[in-house]
Structures are given as C-alpha cells and as structure tokens.
Design goal:
The chain is mainly alpha-helical. It has a domain of about 60 residues. Helices cover about 45% and strands about 10% of the residues. The chain contains two helices and four strands. A hairpin with a 2-residue loop joins strand 3 and strand 4. Helix 1 runs antiparallel to helix 2. The chain is elongated.
Length: about 100
C-alpha cells in the first residue's frame, strides 16, 4: 500500500496587500488603509470649491463615518479575533504525525 504524503505548500503573499502588525498580508488592513486614504483625499479636496472645471462638494462627515465604520469594524474585529484565538501551528496537518 502506498501512503499519500501530506505536504503543505506555502502560498506567497500578493504584492497588493498591506502587511498587518504580524508581518503577514492582511485584506482587512488593506481595506482600512484604502478607506483612510480615500477619506483623507476627499477631506483635503473639500477645502476647495472648484478645481478647474470640476465643482467639489463640501465634506460630509456623516457619509465618511458610514463609509469608514464597517471597514474599521472589520479590521479591529479581525485583530480582536486573532488576539483571542491564536492560530495553531500551520506546519503540521491533522494525520501527518505518522508520515515522517
């Protein structure tokens, strides 16, 4: 009987994800950083009434809060979950003990 070898392949992180505090790529950190920069740019642009032929709207704090709240909730909820439930060692899989 041949035994099938269980081997975990490492997937490299994509270049477009921001690294989280643990040093790994994080989708929620990328969304939070993107939302922060978009909101910051809108805030800075709202200082001007017009930019050339483009008319800009005034800064809407409520709309930005509605935009940022779920994204920041995702980010901080993810951080809380990782702090409360740390990851197990990814180097071994269940059932790999006898396949060495």
């Amino acid at each position: 009987m041949s035994r099938k070898s269980h081997r975990i392949e490492r997937v490299t992180d994509s270049w477009m994800w921001v690294k989280g505090s643990d040093g790994h790529a994080s989708v929620s950190a990328t969304f939070a950083a993107g939302a922060f920069w978009i909101t910051s740019i809108v805030f800075l642009l709202s200082a001007f009434e017009t930019l050339g032929p483009i008319t800009l709207r005034p800064f809407d704090v409520a709309a930005c809060a509605v935009y940022l709240s779920p994204i920041l909730g995702l980010y901080f909820g993810r951080r809380y979950t990782e702090a409360v439930h740390p990851k197990k060692d990814e180097a071994t899989c269940e059932g790999d003990e006898g396949d060495k």
